[in-house]
Amino acid sequence: MVLSQALYSAIRDLKQVVGDDGVLSRAEELLLYEYDGGIEHAAPECVAFPRNTGEVSRIVQLAHRYNMAIVPRGAGTGLSGGSIARSGGIVLVFARMNHILELDIENERAVVEPGVVNLDLTHAAEKHGYYFAPDPSSQKACTIGGNVAENSGGPHTLSLGVTVNHVTGMTVVLPDEAGSVLKLGSKCAHTPGYDLTGFFTGSEGTLGIVTEITVKLTRLPEKAATLLAIFDTIESAGETVEAITREGITPAALEMLDGWMLRTVEAATHAGYPLDSGAVLLIELEGLSEAVEDQAEAVARVCAVSGAREVRRAKDERERELLWAGRKNAFGAIGRVSPSYYVQDGVIPRTKIASTLHRIEEIGKQHGFIIGNIFHAGDGNLHPLILFDIRDPLQTQHAIAAGNEILEYCISVGGSITGEHGVGIEKQDLMCRLFSTQDLTVMKMLRDGFNSTSLLNPQKLLPSTKTCRELIGIAPDWLARAAMPKDLHDA
Amino acid sequence: MTPETMRPQSAEEVASILRAANEEGRDLSTSRLTAISGNTLRLDMTALNAIEKYEPGDLTLRVQAGARVVDVLAALGPHRQMLPLDMPNAQDATIGGMLASAAHGPMRASFGGVREYCIGIEFAIADGTLAHAGGMVVKNVAGYDLMKLLIGSRGTLGIIASASFKVFPIARSTSTFVATFANSEEAIQFAQTVRRSALAPLRLELASPGQTTSAGWSLLITAAGSDAVIARYRRELGGKGPGGVRRLVELTAEEDATVWKALNDLYANAFVSGASRLQVDVSTTLTATVAACKALEDIAARFGAQVSIHGRVGIGHLIGIFHPAFGADPCVMLQALRSIMPPDTFVQSIYPRAPIDLSQNAGMRVVKRALDPKNILNPGATSL
Known about the structure:
heterodimer, A: five-stranded antiparallel sheet, 18 helices, B: eight-stranded antiparallel sheet, 20 strands, 31% helix
């Protein structure tokens, strides 16, 4: 590939900032950075690996000089296109900023660089009796910087909250011409002034580049008990979730797998799920031993009343880990049965779980798809997986339609389009269904205050047009392109 | 001259009032506490007091900003649900006022501040745009988290018209234990021992001598759960730290209600009666809490004042209410206090109410400029 003069100069200047080995620019090197965990893809012009906040600031200045976009990227496990370089430019990867700078156990805090892997932080803190509570299923690979950008959740955030509830401070490089460095928050539970730490968390890399994060560490619970409640129908499992919520029981985690999903998972991981059931609830209880036993008794009682066939309790740590391995590796298990899947991330009130699952089943039948359900039932965060073959344009069109219908239904029952994966590119246009023009205008005012030239992660999160009416019914770009006949792709 | 007061009946009316004020360049105040100039328009939000939506089965609630906290709690109670809004002046506080000031009480020790459970918001910005963020579901990352921005902003970024919350089940039963110590250091160290144990108390509150029935420094620990859980607290608290716990008393239900009311009334009585001329809110790290508390005590001694100290000590929070038997200027006292505080400690003056200092941080100025470029919203509540 022949580089333009401007790009050549930019790469040369980037190397002066991060070193010769800190920049990738060959086409074959850039391939790896075209994708995230979803199916959207777009090629950056180069990739840079900064080592510290100062280098990030200099890269921002450089990006202004050369009029190049910057897209921050952690491990690239995101599912909404948040780290895809839709407008080309520089993908900024934090693989070299992967240090735990401080483990302050006495103050229950850690200070980390954005490239620290989520589970690595937990392992480091576990030796001292603590862990980092947000536990996305990708936690073996995903990074704290990415968790902050997307306000990641995970199964165990039901009782302890999502990432924003566990971040007390950060250092941010702003996308202004100077690459200004902003320090927000502190180690304290509360820092006076506007809560910019909370505002930047979940901003999907569109307001600033986070280069250091102060997180809360949580004490490991005294006891954990994992229950598997088995149901003949998915409806009764859904009704049980509402009953548990109404009873005032707050498990540490409450996950659901429908029958099809658990059979697929079982074939891959042999986690011990019952193959003949309609659905299971995986329920984790944590805390004081006496409280855990109280909750276990209450959960078993509610499940029995709601029609559970059986409630099993993991006998030991091995069995507990196996049940969770089944849950956390579920998406990977799909690869054995389908060439592609399209996963949604809608959220609904817990009172609507049963009716929503029924609607999802209807949508699947109408479009001729199997839709597996595995999700964070305890907080109403669904993950229907539409199984299809992306190589077939007709299937792709139907997958688009089915996905849209599911999210439309979530909105119609008072829910949201994303509980933890973020808006990114994938759901950008659906923001118009969830928010009014005025809502989006205020968000844009704030984004423009920090990112006035759209240098940082452009064309993400907020819709690209002021008139939301024009965007009703339009599919995410990647599926729309995939649905086109091949010869129109490159038109 | 009495400032003009408007009492909007709807969120749209709030927006329209702001639009007009912004066009005229006229300041607007929602605070009953801040002195304002004659030309300032005072906004009385109390007509917006409805519970718009309550879903006990989903543990979610949407309520207008002018609703009183006590009325909201009364609506949740029959469903055995609640919001942990046990702040001082809860009798008079509105939902909007509570959000704007990020007010909190002893239950912050376990539930965190309101930022942890506010899930949606409707608000008007200075130019009259009426906008929403979040929603009515307990997990939601669609769009920017404007709840975080507005909470604690004291009405300087937007006027809140309504908000949505996660609500919580009321604990099956609770019991409060009071451990008494000779000094603040022992009390705080015991609080940290409790915090690092498997116990997860509903409240973990420090109180200086005279605020409970005991003569020493008190640590109030509220256990919540079944009889077995409370029995566990009884065993654990009684057994900790030889010589550390001078006395451990388990309160009756009546004593329990009395002591929490007394702590909250401390603020109301001192402040409203004018008996206190300086009240500070201290936020520090766990390891610096002992030193921060000593600083409050030392300043009181230096200026010949009395100080009542309490707070969510398990999360590094302290409140100091100085009683004037002194002639010192509260500002001088405040400056002296800040100079002896340990590092990484924030001292906010609650009375006299200090403005939000926008000069601290360029990001705060960006946000203020974006949402209220003419600085008409509660202008006395910010400074540059």
